[in-house]
Every structure is written in C-alpha cells, then in structure tokens.
Amino acid sequence: MTLVAVSKTKPSAAIASAIAAGQLHFGENYVQEAVQKIQYFANEKQLTWHFIGPIQSNKTRDIAEYFTWVHSVDRSKIAQRLNQQRPTNMPPLNVLIQVNIDDESSKAGVAPAQVAELAAEINQLPHLKLRGLMAIPQPSHDPLQQAQSLAAMQRLFLALKSQYSELDTLSMGMSDDLDSAIAHGATMVRIGTAIFGPRDSYEPSRSNE
Hints:
The protein is α/β, with parallel strands linked by helices. Helix content is 35%, strand content 19%.
C-alpha cells in the first residue's frame, strides 16, 4: 500500500514536516505550484511526485519532465504528448488511466467501456509505463453506494490486469472513503485532509493552470 500525501495548496513547510515524519510520496494538482515545490525539494532524492489533477495540453511538458507518476491520463492525445515530451534520459513515466466510474459530467476520466482501448494505446508508447487505474468515486454518505463504485473499479482493474499482467496499481481512496477503498483492492490511496488538516479557506487563483 502506497500513501500519497495530497499536498496541493500546502506550503513547503507543511511538506517538510511530512517528510520529517517519513512521508515520501506527494500528490499535486496544479502544475506551476508543483514545479516550484519539486525544485525546492530537489535535494530530497528519495521523494516521489505524483500528478493527480486534470491535465491540460499546454502543461504536459512540465508534467513529463518533473513527475514520476501521472494518475489522470484520460485521452490518447495527452498520453501521446507525455510520451513525446518525457526526457529520454529518464525512466518511463508511470501512468494510470483515470476512470469516471460514476459517469459524473463534472469529472474527468474515461468511461469504463473505453478503458481497454486507451490501455492498448498507452501500452505502445515507449516512454510511458502503464501501471493501472485511478478513480475519484462520487462522494456519498451511503456506504452501500460507495462500496458499489469501489467494487466496480476493482472488477475493472482485475479485468485489465488479466490482459496486462504487469499492472499493479489501483489508485482510489481519500480521507472519507479510505477504509472501504482498501477493502476493495486499492494499492495506492491519496490522502490530504487527514494528513495536512482541512483545506485552506483561501486558495490562490488557478486562472493560469
């Protein structure tokens, strides 16, 4: 199980405290903010940086150059750009396909029926390494509904793994559904509030992201 601390909007001091406590994986949503943090902690060679937010085409170069993992690949165009822009002296970029498991119009991600096609395309790109799937299930106070979405992701992951045996990562589970996600096979969880506290009331404008 890998714990990714969601450090978006959090200051470097908070990240430093988490590092001191032994946290090594950090997840960021905003490219410009993330690059500043990655550069700030450049001497911390043990850290692994995960891009977990929606991907805009004009941000793929920085993502390809600075991150080790990308959780939110949801279309062929983005995969191709990341592949082309990944420096050849770096290991392949670990990627997850983001799945819109609850068919929410407000969320990014491919439909479950489109996962196999996108996986086949990514598998042909030499500078990307397909590792598995990611989802952000619809928030729900109903444990049964929550479990249904997580179980659907688990089935989808196992079906894809039957085609690509090297797949090893199912990224799902946040502060509110952590236990259920782990019970349904999550191998990577993304936790912000439970590590850093409530989201700050003020977040900088993201108009340039």
